[in-house]
């Protein structure tokens, strides 16, 4: 049976405290496209937070990145390590970054940063 590819509100980081906890953990990795910060959580699933600054562009450009990040997470959530909160930040210059490079970067970086965290973070099967 194929897992359901939903992105419910319980899989999102919303509060400033959640973002602060992830940033304060100081575990991050990056490549040419993304910076990924991560922190353990006590939930049986991963959660996503997105931070796109005004340096990236206007509201239309920032919202496009947020949509691309959420869609990549939605499609990859069952392949990502469980029990981890992720915060994604686009790396500048990001003006021509498409969906596929984001998806590839997210998967690789999530696996890489999970190795920096406690061994409790398991890879989903």
How is the secondary structure organized here?
Layout: H1 16-25, E1 28-30, E2 34-40, E3 47-50, H2 59-76, E4 84-90, H3 99-114
Parallel strand pairs: 3-4
Antiparallel strand pairs: 1-2, 2-4
Helix pairs in contact: 2-3
Write structural notes for this entry.
The protein is an alpha+beta fold. It has helices at residues 16-25, 59-76, 99-114; strands at 28-30, 34-40, 47-50, 84-90. The protein has one domain (11-114): 2-Layer Sandwich (Ribosomal Protein S5, domain 2), CATH 3.30.230. It is 35% helix and 17% strand. It has a four-stranded mixed beta sheet with strand order 1-2-4-3, with helices on both faces. Helix 2 crosses helix 3 (99-114). It is globular and about 35 Å long. The two termini are 13 Å apart. The relative contact order is 0.24. Residues 120-125 have low confidence and may be disordered.
Give a short overview.
Helix content is 35%, strand content 17%. The protein is an alpha+beta fold and 125 residues long. It is globular.
Question: How is the biggest beta sheet arranged?
Answer: 4 strands, mixed
Alpha-beta classification: alpha+beta
Assign the CATH architecture.
2-Layer Sandwich
Topology, number of strands: 4
* SS strand fraction: 15-25%
Count of domains: 1
| Shape, per Cα inertia axes | globular
Describe the strand arrangement of the main beta sheet, using strand numbers. Answer: 1-2-4-3
Radius of gyration: 14 Å
CATH fold name, please? Ribosomal Protein S5, domain 2
Let me know the average pLDDT. 88
User: How far is it from the N-terminal to the C-terminal residue, by CA?
Assistant: 13 Å
> Would you list the SSEs in sequence order as H and E?
HEEEHEH
Stretches with pLDDT under 50, minimum 5 residues: 120-125
Please report the number of helical segments.
3
Class in CATH?
Answer: Alpha Beta
Share of helix, binned = 25-40%
């Amino acid at each position: 049976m194929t897992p359901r590819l939903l992105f419910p509100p319980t899989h999102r980081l919303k509060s400033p405290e959640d973002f602060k906890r992830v940033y304060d953990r100081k575990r991050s990795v990056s490549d040419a496209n993304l910076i990924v910060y991560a922190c353990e959580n006590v939930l049986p699933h991963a959660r996503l937070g997105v931070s796109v600054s005004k340096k990236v562009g206007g509201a239309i450009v920032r919202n496009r990145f947020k949509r691309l990040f959420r869609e990549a997470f939605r499609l990859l959530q069952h392949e990502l390590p469980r029990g981890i909160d992720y915060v994604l930040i686009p790396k500048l210059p990001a003006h021509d970054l498409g969906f596929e490079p984001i998806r590839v970067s997210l998967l690789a970086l999530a696996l890489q940063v999970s190795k920096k965290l406690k061994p409790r973070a398991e890879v989903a099967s």
